[in-house]
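Worked Example 4.2. Consider the chain below.
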Amino acid sequence: MAKIVSKIQTVSGRVIKAVVVAALIPVAVGLLVGVLEQLKSASVSGINVARWLAWGFCTYLGVHILLYRPAPLLRISRAMFSPLAVSLFGGQVASVEPSGRSKGKKGAGKKGDDGGGGAQGSALVAFSPYVVPLYTVLACALGWVLRQWTGRLWVEGAISALIGATLAFQWLMTADELQQQRDQWHVETYVLALCLVFVLTLVITAACVPWALPEFSVGQALAEGLARTHAIYSVGWQQLFL
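Applying the procedure from the previous section yields the following structure tokens:
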């Protein structure tokens, strides 16, 4: 009987995660479109900021695939951010890397399924560097500093490309890191983790972009993203049930 209950709980958990993933994908797409649309009107120099950001993103993508994956940079960002995360969330630094596999399958180890509050805090500390794009935040801060000393016309495109490159770094390196857990996780757990990272890093990036591009409106970007998300939900509902 206990095995049957455990099996039902496992299947139910997987179904719930799959439903959450299905609900998050339109949110991710909608927010991305909303941010890109708002970026198009965030320039004072007449350049297409979204295009520069895309160029930076694609440049890093090519480097990542063909030349070099800068894993040390991710470890540096984790080392820089973990003390702050510990002070905010408590606990100790946990790991979601393969070295923690001896503890057995947890479904989503980084989410603190192993019990006590300290473990949950540690898991949150371990996961937080993946959802806080530290180098993107620093790129936006650099844009703010350069705006004080140089003209916007000289730095707007370069900073936009740098934001795109650092965001690509965050997403691709996180996907690589989490991929090492694939033998531990069901596919829906892995995709759920990626969706959460994508959405949260996008929101944090949108909140920081106004430092470098004051014309960028976070509120309008989120409103546009939610409108696009609603449109995707509506189309999906009509296709499935009407």
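Confidence is low (pLDDT under 50) at residues 91-121. Residues 2-39 form the longest helix (38 residues). Compare this with Example 4.1 before moving on.
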